[in-house]
Design the sequence.
């Protein structure tokens, strides 16, 4: 009887080649998905609203055939939802880190403002989509954006309850204060998006003024905290 001692090594090499092919296919798939998302953002950056985007135009800009689109998204709405989720996921994480940093409230406010400004400047197209979808976009995207805003508000309300001055507050009052703070930030995001840009960047002086005013606006409701009596 002859034993093929090379068979295990041969099988191992075959498995290795198959694994490399799978990794390559996964990478290609991820690359195409990213290209479709970026193509939608690119077209919106040129002034086209998300509602006006067509599947064919997005596929063409991404350099793929329309049929390839459906390997990644079932519809344009699903692509839009992916962009909304992408935008908020990082923002929520960074804001949570700012609140859990152990810094005094004044410094937490400043860091939170810095986080939002950094994110808006780095992902301007994403936030432009969010701003439009929140008020006049497709229903499915509008609901998604508003749900994300409610999640940010709820997370902030939970963190506010840890402060000594607010430990006896009702959930309703915590949500109310968190809502005031989040809505203030939304208004300042809109103000940043409205700034003219030069080379993709807004005028530093105008941006600094928005940051300065945003910090004051966020500190103002917190000044009332020691005197607020939460009623059940």
Sequence:
């Amino acid at each position: 009887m002859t034993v093929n001692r090379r068979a295990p090594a041969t099988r191992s090499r075959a498995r290795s080649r198959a694994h490399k092919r799978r990794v390559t296919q996964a990478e290609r798939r991820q690359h195409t998905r990213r290209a479709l998302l970026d193509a939608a953002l690119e077209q919106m950056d040129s002034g086209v609203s998300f509602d006006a985007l067509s599947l064919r135009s997005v596929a063409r800009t991404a350099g793929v055939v329309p049929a390839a689109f459906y390997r990644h998204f079932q519809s344009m709405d699903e692509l839009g939802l992916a962009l909304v989720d992408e935008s908020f996921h990082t923002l929520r994480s960074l804001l949570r880190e700012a609140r859990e940093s152990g810094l005094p409230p004044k410094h937490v406010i400043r860091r939170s403002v810095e986080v939002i400004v950094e994110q808006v400047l780095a992902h301007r197209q994403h936030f432009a989509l969010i701003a439009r979808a929140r008020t006049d976009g497709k229903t499915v995207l509008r609901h998604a954006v508003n749900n994300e805003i409610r999640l940010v508000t709820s997370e902030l309300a939970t963190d506010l309850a840890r402060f000594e001055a607010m430990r006896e507050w009702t959930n309703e009052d915590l949500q109310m204060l968190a809502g005031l703070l989040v809505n203030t930030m939304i208004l300042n995001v809109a103000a940043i998006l409205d700034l003219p840009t030069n080379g993709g960047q807004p005028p530093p002086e105008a941006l600094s003024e928005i940051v300065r005013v945003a910090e004051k606006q966020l500190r103002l409701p917190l000044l009332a905290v020691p005197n607020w009596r939460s009623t059940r």
Remarks:
- The chain has nine helices and no strands.
- The radius of gyration is 24 Å.
- The chain has a mean pLDDT of 85.
- The CA atoms of residues 110 and 215 lie 6 Å apart.
